């Protein structure tokens, strides 16, 4: 089950949250190759957050999934999620960071 967790300093009052959730869910589902009903998306707004020493709109996101997060997928997630946040929340792509965690990697390492 892919889980996308986004924290942003943008105030989400007045934002069409349903559209943001729907767009992110569909994108993650298609990129990671999992059904939409397995994708979880969390968005926390108005989080005290600075990036580059200022409080202009920015976001930190983490995505965790069990497998399927190769380099190509990671790049596509970064580009696509960054575009969605820019379009829907006016967060510049240059002020967005995505941490990617593959839950299977920990299992593989522990078996070595």
TrEMBL record:
Source domain of life: Eukaryota
Transmembrane segments: none
Any one Gene Ontology cellular component term annotated for this protein: extracellular space
Pfam families, sorted: MIF
InterPro entries for this protein: Macrophage_inhib_fac, Tautomerase/MIF_sf
Protein name: Phenylpyruvate tautomerase
Alphabetized GO MF terms: phenylpyruvate tautomerase activity
Taxon lineage: Eukaryota, Viridiplantae, Streptophyta, Embryophyta, Tracheophyta
Record family assignment: Belongs to the MIF family.
